[in-house]
Amino acid sequence: MNHAKTMMLLAAMTALFLGVGWLIGGTAGALIALVVAIGINAFAFWNSDRLALAAHGARAVSPQSEPDLHRMVEGLAERAGLPMPRLYVIDQDQPNAFATGRSPERAAVAVTSGIMRQLSPEELAGVIAHELAHISNRDTLIMTVAATVAGAISMLAQFGLFFGGGRGRGALGIIGVILAALLAPIAAMLIQMLISRTREYSADRLGGEICGNPLWLASALARISGGASRHAMETAESHPASAHLFIVNPLAGRRMDGLFTTHPSTENRIAALKRQAVEMGRTPNPGAGLGGLRESQTRQWSAPVTRPQSPWRSPWRGPWRSPWRSPWR
Questions:
Q1: How many angstroms separate the CA atoms of 55 and 235, rounded?
Q2: Torsion of Cα atoms, 291 then 129 then 59 then 253, to 10°
Q3: Terminus-to-terminus CA distance in the chain, angstroms?
Q4: Using an 8 Å Cβ cutoff, are 84 and 77 in contact?
């Protein structure tokens, strides 16, 4: 259903672009704006991973420097059928994470130092699984296509304001040009945000399947949302255009699940994950908090998974040993 919604929203944005092109610049003006927008976004797409990681000061980590994180991501990536992504750490107290890269082979996952300190291993696994789901769903490509069309619409609107439209602007004349120039960019932005929010729901659901327990991700979202409100992320405030990349909006003061948000509300996402957990038979222990982590320690891998033998082993001991027993044994 989320994939169908995404396709419908992309189709709506394309139709909006064609309508604006007819009102403002005619066929020739629409084609010129589309070519320019494709060129700009193609550069951003091919360099998106490098630009996003550099904007947030992410540093690459190796299996030697972060062995626990590396083993966790390696095991989850194998479970998701993905190649091992490059790993980065952002030295920020705010708990957050994002994935980037134009393809699974070029993917990177970045987590903040705050999220590594504040989440339990199960919750961190849910977050990593969510980011791997974005990689598996090719969400970077989808958002690039949306940005291309939205950028073309904005360029057409600017052409209309400066040049008054072309001969093929249609029956509405200059009124149509003004209306398109003022309203079309807002409409394109709304559609782009709706696409981003739809992709978050899809990544939540697939992430719950990858980690084996949607309640882990639900518990992580509750903690991350509270942490994001207490700790500002300076790099995100300096680069607000990258906010849609993160699992939770890193910008201060954006809590509503309205039309102008890039993320669904945390409450709605948690509710959807709880419904998924019931479908998967992962009901929480009433005395174990939101994620039901105590019960999950003995039930995490109860369903058989047909996979080849994996060399991945749990880096944790003590109370965390049971929930990280390899599913491929």
A1: 7
A2: -60
A3: 34
A4: yes
Alpha-carbon distance of 33 to 159, in angstroms, equals 9
The H-or-E segment that residue 6 falls in is helix 2-24
Catalytic residues: 131
Radius of gyration of the CA atoms of the chain, in A: 22
pTM assigned to the model: 0.74
Condensed to tens digits (0 to 9), the pLDDT of residues 233-273 reads 888 888 777 788 899 888 865 544 455 577 888 999 999 99
230-237, long-range: CB < 8 A, 24+ apart: 231/92, 231/93, 231/94, 231/95, 231/114, 232/94, 233/92, 233/94, 233/96, 233/112, 234/92, 235/55, 235/56, 235/57, 235/90, 235/92, 236/56, 236/94, 236/96
Residue 175: CB atoms within 10 Å: 11
Can you give the residue ranges of every domain in the chain? 2-302+311-323
Q: Based on the number of CB atoms within 10 Å of its own CB, is 262 exposed (0-12), middle (13-18) or buried (19 or more)?
A: buried
Helices (H), 172-326: 173-211, 214-230, 234-238, 266-279, 293-299
